[in-house]
Structures are given as C-alpha cells and as structure tokens.
Amino acid sequence: MVISQKNLDLISGIYEIALDPLAWRPVLDQLCLETGAVAINTVLVDHTIPEIRINATSAKFTEAVLREFNAHHLENEAPAIMALTKYRPGEFISETQIYSDIGRNREEVSTTGWLRERFNIDYRVATRLNTDPAWLDCLTFHYSAERPFIREEEKRVIDLYRQHFARVIEINRPFTLLQSRFRAVLSVLDRFQIGTFILSEQGNIVVCNREAERILSLDDGLARTRDQQLVCRDEKDRLKLAQTVEKVCKTAKAERDDKGRLLTIGRHSEEDPFLVDIAPLRGSDMVLGNRFRGALVLVSDPGNHRELSADGLRLLYGLSEAEEAICRMVIEGLRNDEIAESRNVSLDTVKTQLKSLYAKTRTSHRIDLLRLAQNVNIPVDPPDQSPETDET
Questions:
Q1: Cβ neighbours of residue 158 under 8 Å, at least 6 residues apart?
Q2: Tag placement on the chain: N or C end, fewer CB within 10 Å?
C-alpha cells in the first residue's frame, strides 16, 4: 500500500499519545474516517501491573457512555476481551467468533442489544496490536447495521498503522503508570528508574531525568555536548544514534514511516552495553506544546540492576522454581559459575536450566532477559516512595 501524506499525518499524531492520553480521541476519530467505522476503542489490560489501564475511544463514545458501559456491560465483555489472547496481531476477529470461542451467542449478550439500540452498531471486529504476554491490547472497530462488515481495503489501512499503535502503547506503559501513581508525567520522571531523554528534532536534550543524568555522569559510552546534544563516544555508535534520532524525528514531523529501534551502545568499561530504545515523539497542547516534534530515548543500564525484578516472569512464562531462581540471579549479574556455587549444583546443570529459561522467555542472553524484566516489572517508584530530591 502506497503511503500518502494523510497516512503520515496520522502516524505522526499517534506518537502524541506517548505522553498525553487525551491524544487518543482525535487519532481514533481520524481512523474512523479512514476505515468507515462508526466508532473505535482501544483497550489495554496489564497482567502484572493492574494500575496500567487504557480504555480510549473515538468521539462517539463519550465519558458518560463509558460509565454506562462499565456499570452494565463490562462484566459481559471481559471474558471476550481475554479470549483474544489466542489470536495473533494481523488477524481480524469478529465478535461472533469471539463469543463462540467462550461458548456464548452474541444475541444473548447485553452489549449487543445496547450498541444496536443506542448507536445502530451491529458489527464489531477486533485486532490485537502486541503479543507481549505481560499485557493484552487491541483495537475494536464498530460498524453500523446498514454496513455490518469491514472491507479488505480497510483492513489494509489498519495494517499500515498497526505497528505504530503497537509501538506507542509499548512506550506509553511507563508513563501511564507514572500518571496513575503521581497524577503527572514530565514533572515526576525522576521516579522512573530508566534513563529518559526527550530530544528536539535537532537532537538537543530538552528534558532528562535523574537516571539519565547518572548515566551521563559515568562518561562511559554516552555524553552530552556543550550544545546539549546526546552523543556516543564511539564514532560508529555516534553515527548509529544520530541516524536513528533523525529518522524518528522525521516520523514525528509526518515526513517518514519509522517507528524507531533498539540500539546497543558500547562502553569503554567492561560493563554490558547500554540498551537504547528510540521512538518518535510529538508534543500536544498539554505536554511539551503542540509544535514539538522530536524523539524519546530510553536508556537502560544493565549494570544498575537494583531496580529490576523477576516478579511475574514465572507466571507469565511458566518457569519452574529453579528457572525462576536462576532468572533472578542472571538479572542480578551473577556469572554461570557463581550461580552454580550459590545453588550448589554443577555448571552443566546451570547451563541446561539457562537454556530452558531462554527458550521459555524467547530470549537469547542476559541483555534480552533484562529488557524483558523491565517490560514486565516497570521500574517506577511505588506511590509512597519519594525520590531523594523531589522537585514536583
């Protein structure tokens, strides 16, 4: 499908959602126009951090409508939403199919009659965005009784945007958690224990948190120039970082279709490389200003594992007790021989259990496992914990 300027404009708008949940509505309204839907809603159910919830809608479903739905119909819908876990992103599943999966007839579900009577909606189709087992997310498209189906060309339009919706939900989770716990985002970034940089389209550091400052103070791979540019000490890494930032800034400016990428940035010390996740970022009236176009850069230091936890990985990935114990030790930075000594087992046993651990979690080494642990257990301060210096 050829990408038009209209498509690029909407892709840019999607990245406004990263820091501002109010941006969902205009984005979904535009998507309604492009897909012929009467209404669209998106849902995120987090399996490990219940505070992280998204239930955003296009303008058709007002706050009053959502309250009515939550009071009278949410209980019916919850099993249907969870039934989506068996499907992959890219599949479009009708409500008839979903209800069939849980042994129900859609005509017997109260939501069906309510949508028909209130909004003349008689067809819904859902599609997943991410496959991460830590959370379930989806977009649901609502069609009128006069046109109870979705066209193939509309599916192609949705597929064009899918990766960007998936990406913005992924990067938004920590900020949704900050908003839930502290009723703010930018002013409480120090409570987020991953280095966070917001860069202008010129690559200048506009905002950074305490962990980002700590990483820069190490002078070990990443640096800040006199003109506030975020750069790498290594020339190859410097070019890689600059090119990626430039690409995502063009996406934010509606000039490119690039969701960003994860980089590893080498260090002069013997520590593991930094994990640097770079994504487009667009400002809104509420956050950064509606003219802002730039990049979000999240830097994880594998050597700073005090805030990391393996909680939840056992349940999500079906780990044995031994695999869970080894997972914790790997996250803490122990070598294989240290794990063997600590657990009083042979090195071969540790290697076998590590192989099983990596297979179950779909990772291949410690860095992957660290990133997974961060996704599942986002390192944000609990509500009753204040940073050493709270300026909020």
A1: 31, 35, 92, 127, 139, 141
A2: N
pLDDT single digits (tens) 85-106: 999 999 999 999 999 999 999 9
What is residue 367's predicted lDDT score, i.e. its pLDDT? 86
52 touches 135 (CB < 8 A): yes
Rounded CA gap, 296 and 143, in Å? 35
Confirm whether 385 is domain-assigned: no
DSSP state, 2? P
Supply the pLDDT for residue 1.
Answer: 75
Phi, psi of 278 (to 5 degrees): -120, 130
Q: Which residues contact 206 (CB under 8 A, 6 or more apart)?
A: 198, 199, 200, 288, 292, 294
CA 311 to chain centroid, in Å, comes to: 19
C-alpha dihedral sign at 212, 215, 221, 224: positive
What 3-state class would DSSP assign to 89? coil
Tell me: pLDDT of 389 over 70.
no
Task: Say whether 174 sits in a helix, a strand or coil.
Answer: helix
The answer to whether residues 213 and 67 belong to one domain is: no
Q: How many domains is the chain built from?
A: 3
Q: Which residues pair with 105 in a beta bridge?
A: none
Report the distance separating Cα 374 and Cα 193, nearest Å: 10
Residue with more model confidence, 311 or 365: 365
**Helix, strand, coil percentages, rounded to 5, for the chain:** 45, 20, 35
The two beta strands, 135-144 and 195-200, are unpaired
The per-residue pLDDT for range 311-357, each reduced to its tens digit, is 788 889 988 888 989 998 998 888 899 999 999 999 999 999 999 99
Tell me: do 168 and 207 sit in the same domain.
Answer: no
Residue of 72, 119, 87, 79 whose CA lies nearest to 103: 79
Is the pLDDT at 306 greater than 80? The verdict is: no
Question: Are residue 257 and residue 329 in the same domain, yes or no?
Answer: no
Q: Which structural domain range is residue 130 located in?
A: 5-182
- Tell me the DSSP string of 320-363: -HHHHHHHHHHHHT--HHHHHHHHT--HHHHHHHHHHHHHHHT-
User: Which residue, 151, 182, 213, sits at the end of a domain?
Assistant: 182
d(CA 158, CA 92): 10
Residue linked to tokens 């996740």: 277
